[in-house]
Amino acid sequence: MKIIDAKVIVCSPGRNFVTLKITTDDGLSGIGDATLNGRELSVASYLTDHVIPCLIGRDAHQVEDIWQYLYRGAYWRRGPVTMTAIAAVDTALWDIKAKAAGMPLYQLLGGKSRTGVMVYGHANGAGIDETVEQVLHYKKLGYKAIRAQSGVPGLEKVYGVGRGTLFYEPADSSLPSEHDWSTERYLLHTPKLFAAVREAVGPDVHLLHDVHHRLTPIEAARLGKALEPYHLFWMEDATPAENQESFRLIRQHTTTPLAVGEIFNSIWDCKDLIQHQLIDYIRTTVVHAGGITQLRRIADFAGMYQVRTGSHGATDLSPVCMGAALHFDLWVPNFGIQEYMRHTDETDAVFPHAYTFEDGFLHPGDAPGHGVDIDEALAARYPYKPAYLPVNRLAHDGTLWHW
Ligand SMILES: O=C(O)C(=O)C[C@H](O)[C@H](O)CO
Ligand SMILES: [Mg+2]
């Protein structure tokens, strides 16, 4: 089964997406997500200029060999652009392999390990009352797990608080917009938020929170401790993770479970965190961590240390990534949870998909492959629009901080 064509489709149905489509000589085609928020065209170029020429004529069934060929063959290893490009190829090839077998992808991975994929939704509000209201709204929609983010008094724009109720889109400007930040205000506010949310929602709903890399390890330890009475499912990205060792300090002070990894692109980024049991959930995704082939390796390694998966699933990960992720989630033995930020109707129309939401769970469906397609004619009606993620500055003196 030879690869005869591969092309990159860039479109912007509400937000930018990059999709790779691979076609074989026996008429099968598969697609992979290649979206890297705010840096989309770098991956498109990496694929078009450097990867696609090397794919033509290869056997589409050799998923592992092609992965190694692209990873080792580039000489320059890892990095978000490279690994997103490799992920797109890998996802498209798994899609083709499953279609050739006439099976949904989860069957090829080892079959179902559960009846559905528990997801968490995003509730956010300008203040505590509005956030509580949103959490209750998500509960009513059937969600078993809800992430809560709220504006902080005295700060104008805070991570996680966007427009609308079901959709959140941080890449909101043609040049990076500027947010302001005060750790002290945030640390005073957030325990009050979770006291109110837990009180309103009761003991059974899982609650999650994303710190978005904004605290130092000792500050994160203080927050984790303060949140213990509200028994969070996880506290995410408590501090930047370039130095994996820094999580040891947080761990020594709090029993609040820790989740990390949405910006990781290889198993090496999480090796120490997993091996030393410094985290509880690993958030690497299909699209940014080298596809199903490497994600499977990360999950198996994590399983040895009782670390479970909790893949990133924000709106900048296309429905193609979501479809592939759900097959992975249905199979992976050490599954924890899947993030689910709904896409807009425009996005869903461009990417028709087999997955469905019911009562807090997503189901990948039983269509052969990963079950997500792209309507190329419709995609062509939404040309690329430059859009950046914001930056963050300390409110008191304008120092550039982590966003
Ligand atoms: O979904 C999350 O947990 C995020 O942190 C979302 C990120 O800000 C977003 O995906 C950046 O592209
Ligand atoms: Mg996050």
Automatic annotation (TrEMBL):
The protein, known as: mannonate dehydratase
Entry-linked InterPro entries: D-mannonate_dehydratase-like (IPR034589), DgoD-like (IPR034593), Enolase-like_C_sf (IPR036849), Enolase-like_N (IPR029017), Enolase_C-like (IPR029065), MAND (IPR034587), Mandel_Rmase/mucon_lact_enz_CS (IPR018110), Mandelate_racemase_C (IPR013342)
Keyword Membrane tagged: no
Function: Catalyzes the dehydration of D-mannonate. Has no detectable activity with a panel of 70 other acid sugars (in vitro).
Substrates-to-products reaction catalysed: D-mannonate = 2-dehydro-3-deoxy-D-gluconate + H2O
One matching Pfam family: MR_MLE_C
Cofactor (UniProt): Mg(2+)
Organism superkingdom: Bacteria
EC number: 4.2.1.8
SUPFAM superfamilies assigned to the protein according to its UniProt record, in alphabetical order: Enolase C-terminal domain-like, Enolase N-terminal domain-like
Assigned keywords, A-Z: Carbohydrate metabolism, Lyase, Magnesium, Metal-binding
Enzyme class, broadest EC rank: lyase
Span of domain Mandelate racemase/muconate lactonizing enzyme C-terminal: 128-257
